[in-house]
Specification:
alpha+beta; 2 domains; two-stranded antiparallel sheet; 5 helices; 10 strands; 29% strand; elongated; EC 1.7.1.13; preQ1 synthase activity
């Protein structure tokens, strides 16, 4: 169950008949070990997936559509490789179901089994599309800073904080997050929101650090956790939350959220680029 054994980056036959075996789980443990995360997680949170290309047939053969949202707990042992997720959802296209609830229950069962934990699944159907939230991240934009940089691989030494001064509470945001798919090398474009309480973080260093992911290869969830761990170690905040929202690919967007303190979960409002 490693990326090179997945459908990622390989020619694939698209089936439109339901097939749960298309889901390809990848254990989280390997990538976490690389950044010093052991069995006891230093955070909790969720991965929010939005699927915009879900369709099936009703009992009379008429196509139905929905936008599906998945809430995958951060402590699940596995993630699902995104191309396999797309292929799996595509397999519903010519399959008849009695109701939308039957489709949702089927997907919840299959994705929970692949992730090794209970996954919440929410459907929005056409009548509710216009009510879906749409906003931008709240916080102070790091992108306003005019600076030079030439570091395009993650470098935690760029992170600095005023460790000998009184703590502050800030929310900082950037739309300049970019990483690359571990197998195909295709770009993954994202935005990140960082909320913390602790020594004030040097904003120029933080922006350079975010930009340093530009040539990094890693899944969305792994990049968010690396950002969390590097800030935690280098800047020593008492409280930290990292929320990344990536643009969609293949009709899917992936939005990891990690925090070490109790705070409201993100509302899953879509950003303009998504």
């Amino acid at each position: 169950m490693t990326p090179e054994h997945s459908p990622l980056g390989k020619p694939a036959a698209y089936t439109e008949q339901y097939d749960a075996t298309l889901l390809f789980p990848i254990p989280r443990a390997g990538a976490r070990e690389q950044i010093g995360i052991g069995a006891r997680l230093p955070f909790f949170g969720t991965d929010i997936w939005n699927a915009y290309e879900l369709s099936w047939l009703n009992a009379r053969g008429k196509p139905q559509i929905a936008i599906a949202t998945f809430f995958i707990p951060a402590d699940s042992p596995n993630i699902v490789e995104s191309k396999s997720f797309k292929l799996y959802l595509g397999s519903f296209a010519q399959t008849a179901f009695e109701s939308a609830d039957a489709v949702r229950d089927t997907i919840k069962r299959d994705v929970s089994a692949a992730c090794g934990a209970s996954v919440s699944v929410k459907f929005d159907q056409p009548g509710g599309f216009g009510k879906l939230p749409f906003e931008e991240f709240e916080g102070l934009s790091l992108d306003r800073l005019d600076l030079d940089t030439e570091i395009y691989h993650p470098d935690p030494t760029l992170l600095k904080a005023a460790l000998d001064e009184s703590p502050v509470e800030e929310t900082l945001v950037s739309n300049l997050l970019k990483s690359n798919c571990p197998v195909t090398g295709q770009p993954d474009w994202g935005s990140v929101q960082i909320h913390y309480v602790g020594p004030q973080i040097d904003q120029a260093g933080l922006l350079r650090y975010i930009i340093s992911f530009r040539n990094h290869t890693g899944f969305h969830e792994q990049c968010a956790e690396r950002i969390f761990m590097d800030i935690l170690r280098e800047c020593k905040p008492d409280r930290l939350a990292v929320y990344a929202r990536y643009t969609r690919r293949g009709g899917l967007d992936i939005n990891p959220f990690r925090t070490n303190f109790n705070m409201p979960m993100p509302d899953n409002a879509r950003l303009a680029r998504q």
